[in-house]
Amino acid sequence: MDWIAVFTSLEAVCKENITALSGPPDLPYGDVSRRLVTCMRKIQDHGRALEPVVSGITAVYHHYDFDSDTPGNGYRTLVKVLQSCLLHIIHNGRYIASNCHRAFFRADHNASEMEAYGSVLCQLRALLYIAQGMLHDNSPGQLYGEQELSRWLVREYASMHKACFYGRCLGFQFSSSLRPILQSLIISMVSFGESYEKQHSGLGMAAFSLLTSGKYVIDPELRGEEYERITQNLDMKFWKSFWNLTESELVSGFASLTSTLVQVNLTLTIPPEPLLLPLVSDPRLSTPVSPPVAHWGPGPVNMRLISYELREGQDSKELLAFARTEAPPISLSLVPFGAQKRPPSPWLLIHFHGGGFVSQTSKSHEVHRPGWSLGWSKDLNVPILSVDYSLAPEAPFPRALEECFYTYCWALKNCHLLGQLLQQNRVCLAGDSAGGNLCITVSMRAIACGVRIPDGIMAAYPATLLTIEASPSRLLTSFDLLLPLGVLSKCINAYTGVDSETVQPTEGISTLSALGRDTASLISDLSHGASKWIQSFIPAEVLGSWSSSHQRSLDNKAHQRSVLPCSPDSSSGPRDYPDGFEPLRSERLSVIQPHSCPTVKNPFVSPLLASDDLLRGLPHVHIASALDALLDDSVMFARKLRNMGQPVTLRVVEDLPHGFLSLSGYAEEIKVASDICVERIREVFQQTTLPSCTRK
Ligand SMILES: CCCCCCCC/C=C\CCCCCCCC(=O)O[C@H]1CC[C@@]2(C)C(=CC[C@H]3[C@@H]4CC[C@H]([C@H](C)CCCC(C)C)[C@@]4(C)CC[C@@H]32)C1
């Protein structure tokens, strides 16, 4: 990217607009012209200040890439986001300069648009200063600091104005074809949040959400404000319910209209019986694998078998004895009359869904548009076993891991029932986000137990480090659409068991219906405790004066000094911004709870912290990452594996957000990214080395 050209154009556009709008008194929009001139002056100021920062970062950011063929890390992402913002400003600025004299110029609209991008630019400038501080503080090549999140950063995050990212500029950093779906998603989320707070339920909620959504379509500022509010205030129960929307009959009904139809879609419940698996080191010996026991003792595991074509074994009595499908498990109408069952496949894909460890099921990824599980079952013509592991906070670590590992072992023993060949078969693990984490940790467990490891892993934007440590890509959590920090920290606390009690699922109740269970009592004090935690840093007089308009940048330097009780605040980030600069502040403080609980450092929670011994022997790990907060997790993990001599590939898909696979079918770019994942899985299945069971 030619940054000199970008900054020169920005300067030119600013000057052009300032001259055009402050010149002739005959312009019909006096007030709006003044707004625009003020805004362009601020943008000009930001541009001039950002130029040296950007050139400093771009001069070194390649040192943080996985390798020279795979450019991608948080520094690059931040700069790329800035670039999108500047290009929008230049584009809009040129339009304004050449059209402001025309009769049909929508002055107010254009001014609001420019102001919105101006606010985004101001916040990005703050983040780039913080990133610059990280470059300075962190050891060379390291994307994470040595210490956990500093109090300074937490306070910065808590008080920063974020609404500008969710209003007019929503999704500006992503591919333009994604903007409509992202907009609909955010509008649904805020309307849903409003009805949630009004305690509506069921159809009432749907009707209310539909009614309220109109105002968020018309008023992007209101939408931004409201989104900022709900990401900061609403509890885990809200996020669980919204993220589980795809489970609802209404949404899945719509989705199934466009989804691929498969012949086998079978939900299974496997009873908790000990298994015996051959040892890789000496297959004549076996090792016992116990069923999941953490927190409430042995319990069954739920899973779903999906197969595009009916294969031998999949309609066997033995398998159907485990079925818990309400609807007919085998869509006989889809099996052509008189058609033969297909022979077993040499391949099996075991899938762990994402959802922050707290939400979603195999169903969320099942009826989705072509591109995700069901689509993959067709693309690869492979049976897929997707695990409905127990969710946090009811089931904190290690319950989900135990259930996934148990399922993996059960599948190895019972592959003939799943439509897979017994001999010389191949098994690949795939998952996104939290599911990517589980793919890696299940394989680590297989190594530790000495049983067969999978033949490969395909992890999409996986979480590999659950400690609250700052990295440049993680700075994106301050305005991420799907994973804002306040929400992420709730997921981490739920998974690691902070502030939660465990509840044994009721016998016979599936994970799906368990999702509807009221978890409020378990986490009711989360937000209360968290706001107290944040407020403990902030003196009462400052809190009182906080509720001013978000557009007003509070001079909080004095405040910062008074808030910071000389703590040894030496980790990443500047202690202050350059003189004369302050980001915009929010009228409300974010709720984040960065508890430092030892569980987050457990290598089976944060595989990036695992010792080489635990990782040595992992199969080929294919990682697909996005323009998201977890990019540095992927880059650092891939580098760690490569430095150990482990096989690993990393592909950074630019312009797509975290969770892009869940948005399959909405944009061509996602189809391309999903195809990359499919190709990686195919490579695992077709690799010429011997299957893992025969390797020692
Ligand atoms: C200031 C800097 C400080 C840095 C501090 C760092 C903090 C720690 C960072 C990382 C630790 C990682 C911890 C755990 C990560 C877990 C990640 C993880 O698994 O996150 C997933 C959570 C669910 C979700 C949001 C997701 C992806 C896709 C989303 C889905 C897309 C569509 C789905 C809608 C419900 C569809 C509705 C349609 C309807 C018609 C409106 C939606 C939104 C459901 C939710 C998912 C990512």
From TrEMBL:
A Gene Ontology molecular function term of the record: sterol ester esterase activity
Start and end residues of each stretch annotated as Disordered: 557-580
Main location per the UniProt record: membrane
Pfam families named among the record's database cross-references: Abhydrolase_3 (PF07859), HSL_N (PF06350)
Entries under InterPro entries matching the protein: AB_hydrolase_3, AB_hydrolase_fold, HSL_N, Lipase_GDXG_HIS_AS, Lipase_GDXG_put_SER_AS
Alpha/beta hydrolase fold-3 domain segment(s): 349-505, 599-661
Catalytic activity: 2,3-di-(9Z)-octadecenoyl-sn-glycerol + H2O = 2-(9Z-octadecenoyl)-glycerol + (9Z)-octadecenoate + H(+); 1-(9Z-octadecenoyl)-glycerol + H2O = glycerol + (9Z)-octadecenoate + H(+); cholesteryl (9Z-octadecenoate) + H2O = cholesterol + (9Z)-octadecenoate + H(+); Hydrolyzes glycerol monoesters of long-chain fatty acids
SUPFAM superfamilies: alpha/beta-Hydrolases
Coiled-coil stretches: none
Domain Hormone-sensitive lipase N-terminal: 7-315
Active-site residues per Swiss-Prot or TrEMBL entry: S433
Highest taxon of the lineage: Eukaryota
A biological process term (GO) from this entry: triglyceride catabolic process
This protein's UniProt keywords: Cell membrane, Cholesterol metabolism, Cytoplasm, Hydrolase, Lipid degradation, Lipid droplet, Lipid metabolism, Membrane, Phosphoprotein, Steroid metabolism, Sterol metabolism
EC number: 3.1.1.23, 3.1.1.79
Subcellular location: Cell membrane; Cytoplasm, Cytosol; Lipid droplet; Membrane, Caveola
Pathway it works in: Lipid metabolism; Glycerolipid metabolism; triacylglycerol degradation
One GO CC term, this protein: cytosol
Family: Belongs to the 'GDXG' lipolytic enzyme family.
Quaternary structure annotation from Swiss-Prot or TrEMBL: Monomer and homodimer. Interacts with CAVIN1 in the adipocyte cytoplasm. Interacts with PLIN5.
Protein name as annotated: Hormone-sensitive lipase
Originating species: Oncorhynchus kisutch (Coho salmon)
Gene name of the encoded protein: LOC109899918
